[in-house]
Design a protein that fits this description.
Layout (H helix, E strand, L loop, with lengths): L7 H30 L1 H6 L1 H32 L7 H12 L8 H30 L9 H35 L5 H8 L1 H6 L2 H25 L15
Length: 240
């Protein structure tokens, strides 16, 4: 039973840090890029704004996640290595050097940047489609509960796409952290391309779909509580 919870602290801290950077910086970059483009271009190419903003946010968010991810995988996949974060991170640095905390950063970018671009881009567009084709009244006339229900549904749909896009790199990152000295080429040879793309995909779709739906529901609940509109509203721009 204890094995099920091994590595929970680096997981909690890592993904908390990543989430704070990801959502916070996404709002910043979306607004910044929208102001740079101007209202007319934003109206034509809003999906590009979503993708550019989310990619920029994830680039920095993964720098916050990578050290915790390295410790988590080492604790979970190397028997007897450490009990958790407090002893795992110093031991990892002592044995393999500080750089090992960022050994999987590039593969992490390969997994998380496409994932986040899909997560935010698909979510924003799905919200708009749900209000246009499914919800029988404009967003402004919907109650807070109805708006948050749309956020969860759009988040779940976006999560399915996220899981498919990011799954190969997720398998790669896990194997790289579990096998000391292995390269990406080594892992691909071991697994084969088909297994790299499909092993564990069904479970990941269920897990990521639910998780993404909950993330958007919680995030938009916070925005509503703060008096802000739910995500998917028209992008505000500074008129030029």
């Amino acid at each position: 039973m204890a094995g099920l919870f091994r590595g929970w602290l680096p997981t909690l801290m890592g993904y908390s840090a990543q989430g704070a950077f990801k959502f916070g910086l996404y709002e910043y970059f979306k607004k910044t890029y929208s102001d740079m483009a101007g209202e007319e271009l934003v109206a034509k190419y809003q999906t590009l704004i979503f993708l550019a903003g989310s990619a920029s946010a994830e680039f920095f968010a993964d720098m916050a996640l990578s050290p915790f991810e390295a410790v988590k995988v080492s604790v979970q996949t190397r028997p007897g290595f450490a009990k958790g974060l407090s002893d795992g991170m110093p031991k990892l640095i002592r044995q393999e050097g500080f750089g090992t905390l960022f050994k999987s950063l590039v593969p992490l970018w390969g997994r998380q940047i496409p994932y986040t671009m899909m997560k935010f881009g698909a979510f924003e567009n799905t919200v708009q489609m749900l209000y246009k084709y499914v919800v029988p009244k404009p967003r402004e006339e919907c109650s807070k509960y109805e708006q948050l229900t749309v956020s969860f549904a759009a988040g779940y749909i976006a999560g399915v796409f996220c899981a498919v896009v990011s799954h190969p790199a997720d398998n790669l990152v896990s194997k790289l952290n579990a096998q000391k000295g292995a390269t990406a080429g080594d892992i691909i040879k071991q697994m084969g391309w088909y297994a790299l793309f499909t092993r564990g995909l069904g479970l990941r779709i269920i897990m990521i779909g639910t998780l993404t739906g909950l993330q958007w529901g919680i995030y938009d609940s916070f925005k509503v509580a703060a008096g802000l509109p739910t995500t998917g509203a028209k992008i505000p721009t500074d008129k030029k």
